[in-house]
């Protein structure tokens, strides 16, 4: 393992998260918010839920992409400064899930923007979300 | 003598952000504990800072970067005024200029969120600036000089005669630290809300500069509070740290108030306390 520089160490220690809901049923969104509660308290790893794409490092995306949100998602992805990673939270965000053959749904998030980590589950447990973000951080450390 | 002063300023310039960052780390940890969470490591603000330095520049408007540098430079300048024991009145004006730079930075973009934040920052300046000016006048009334070095020559601490203004300055500290109930122009907790305001359009290294300026700012404010007890200075520093902890406590037990409420309360309570204080000093000492 090579030694990491100051900025790279800081990247791993301070992931700021942007949460975007495409057209999710809200199940995964509730689980993401559960990560912030005192029980899981992701702030101890420096993770902060940002509301502003310009401040974020990690995109947590829930729900299948539909024709409306595809444009918004591309826009948000463009606004996040590099280096950034994308984490799909839930089966719908990963593949389209139960909505995959709806007339208005394009499918998973990877149909629109490049995805780094898939976290399947319906809905995802908070432990799995934290695990997914840690995997994303390992990827971020190598960027 | 000159070299000694230069080195002293250099030590302050390097040391202030380190201490300020640690104070913000302690703030985050204590806030987390009060909310029943574990909280991030104390050096978390430094991780955030270096991460932001390594991120991509995204230019929204070129002028915006001039203003954020202005905010930082004026903040450092007023801190140098404090440690060189220079003129307190000029320090207050420099602090005002720093605030105005932040406001102009918000207005230099086209984002409505940044404009909202800039408007609110302007209201905050309107709320705290008169109180600080009254403090300068009261120091003049007490010592016959605006110089901070004159405060250090007095045996009797300012706190004994200026305690009403001390209360008003505690109020200003809440506004300047952007803590509840006055976290109005930007806030350390409400990341998804409109109160992110002035920082909305800053990203990457420029957001890091904003944080750096905030670290200088906290040291400057605690320094101003410690002026109330300069002989010996360690009592003043202890008072400042107690005020800091009090702010964290207030931050966690109160909700956010509206802009109008802040200005009204600051002008009614702060200004009346200040004016009565100055009038009393002149009444006891006589106008010369």
Short description:
The complex is a heterodimer of chains A (143) and B (288). With 143 residues, chain A is α/β, with parallel strands linked by helices.
Structure description:
The complex is a heterodimer of chains A (143) and B (288). Chain A has 5 helices and 7 strands; from the N terminus they run αβαβββαβαββα. Chain A has a single domain, classed as Rossmann fold, CATH 3.40.50.12280. In chain A, the strands form 2 sheets. Chain A has a 5-stranded parallel sheet. A two-stranded antiparallel sheet of chain A has the order 4-6. Helix content of chain A is 35%, strand content 19%. With 143 residues, chain A is α/β, with parallel strands linked by helices. Chain B is mostly helical. Chain B is 73% helix and 0% strand. The relative contact order of chain B is 0.15.
Separation, N- and C-terminal Cα atoms of chain B:
36 Å
Largest sheet of chain A: 5 strands, parallel
Strand content of chain A: 15-25%
Report Rg of chain A.
15 Å
> Biggest sheet of chain A: strands side by side, in what order?
2-1-3-5-7
Number of strands of chain A: 7
Largest interchain contact: A-B, 27 and 33 residues
Question: Which regions of chain B contain 5 or more consecutive residues with pLDDT less than 50?
Answer: none
Number of helices of chain A: 5
CATH fold naming of chain A: Rossmann fold
Strand content of chain B: under 5%
Tally of separate domains of chain B? 1
Mean pLDDT over the residues of chain B:
88
Helix and strand element order of chain B: HHHHHHHHHHH
Structural class of chain A: alpha/beta
Write down the overall mean pLDDT of chain A: 88
Total count of helical runs of at least 4 residues of chain B: 11
């Amino acid at each position: 393992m090579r030694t990491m520089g100051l900025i790279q160490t800081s990247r791993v220690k301070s992931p700021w998260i942007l949460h975007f809901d495409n057209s999710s049923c809200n199940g995964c969104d509730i689980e993401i918010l559960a990560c912030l509660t005192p029980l899981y308290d992701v702030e101890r790893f420096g993770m902060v839920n940002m509301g502003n794409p310009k401040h974020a490092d990690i995109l947590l995306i829930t729900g299948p992409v539909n024709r409306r949100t595809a444009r918004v998602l591309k826009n948000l992805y463009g606004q996040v400064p590099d280096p950034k990673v994308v984490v799909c939270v839930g089966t719908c965000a990963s593949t389209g899930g139960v909505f995959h053959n709806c007339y208005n749904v394009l499918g998973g998030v990877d149909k629109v923007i490049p995805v780094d980590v898939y976290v399947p589950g319906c809905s995802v447990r908070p432990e799995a979300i934290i695990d997914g973000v840690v995997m994303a951080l390992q990827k971020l450390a190598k960027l | 003598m000159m070299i000694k002063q230069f080195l002293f300023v250099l030590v302050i310039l390097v040391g202030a952000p380190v201490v300020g960052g640690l104070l913000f780390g302690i703030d985050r940890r204590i806030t987390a504990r009060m909310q029943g969470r574990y909280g991030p490591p104390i050096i978390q603000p430094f991780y955030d800072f270096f991460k932001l330095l390594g991120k991509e520049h995204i230019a929204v408007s070129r002028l915006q970067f001039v203003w954020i540098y202005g905010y930082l430079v004026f903040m450092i300048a007023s801190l140098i005024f404090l440690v060189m024991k220079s003129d307190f009145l000029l320090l207050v004006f420099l602090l005002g200029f720093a605030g105005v730079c932040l406001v102009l930075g918000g207005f230099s973009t086209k984002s409505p969120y940044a404009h909202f934040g800039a408007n609110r920052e302007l209201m905050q300046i309107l709320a705290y600036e008169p109180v600080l000016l009254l403090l300068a006048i009261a120091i003049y009334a007490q010592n016959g000089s605006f110089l901070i070095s004159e405060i250090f020559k007095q045996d009797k601490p300012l706190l004994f005669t200026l305690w009403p203004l001390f209360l008003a300055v505690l109020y200003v500290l809440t506004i300047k630290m952007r803590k509840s109930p006055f976290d109005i122009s930007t806030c350390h907790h409400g990341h998804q809300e409109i109160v992110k305001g002035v920082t909305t359009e800053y990203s990457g290294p420029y957001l890091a500069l904003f944080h750096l300026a905030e670290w200088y700012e906290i040291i400057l404010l605690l320094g101003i509070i410690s002026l109330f007890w300069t002989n010996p200075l360690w009592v003043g520093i202890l008072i400042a740290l107690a005020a800091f902890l009090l702010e964290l406590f207030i931050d966690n037990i109160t909700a956010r108030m509206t802009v109008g409420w802040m200005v009204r309360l600051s002008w009614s309570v702060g200004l009346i306390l200040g004016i009565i204080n100055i009038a009393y000093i002149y009444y006891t000492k006589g106008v010369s």
